[in-house]
Structure prediction request, 131 residues.
Amino acid sequence: MKIRSLLLFVYIGIISSLNAKISTPAIFGSNMVLQQNHKCPVWGKAEKLSTISLSFSGKTYQTRADEKGNWRVYLDPHPASNNPLKMRIVEESPNRKENTSSLTYENILVGEVWLCSGQSNMQWSVSRSED
Prediction:
């Protein structure tokens, strides 16, 4: 009985990997801000050797996933803008019956992105500051 259960899980895992769809890390999504005036990388996973098309701000970028399914494109630098943009990523796979999968991220702005970490003085709230 345990062997049958194990084989069932292995079979489901194999079938799931055959139907893999495009994905990006959690740092990409709707309502994000991209760094202005910088070649921003966008990357993710897809079925190996599938074709990836990324559309953003009127331009389309294309690449191919490698043998492990990793892919990456670099967006052209954009000036700061408060006009919301949309990003659409499409995977075309020759190995699946449903040969395309896609992601759409909306309400993307371009501006200054700051990452802050690691200092004890970062606990100081703005409301405790003067001017």
User: Anything to note?
Assistant: The longest strand covers residues 81-92.
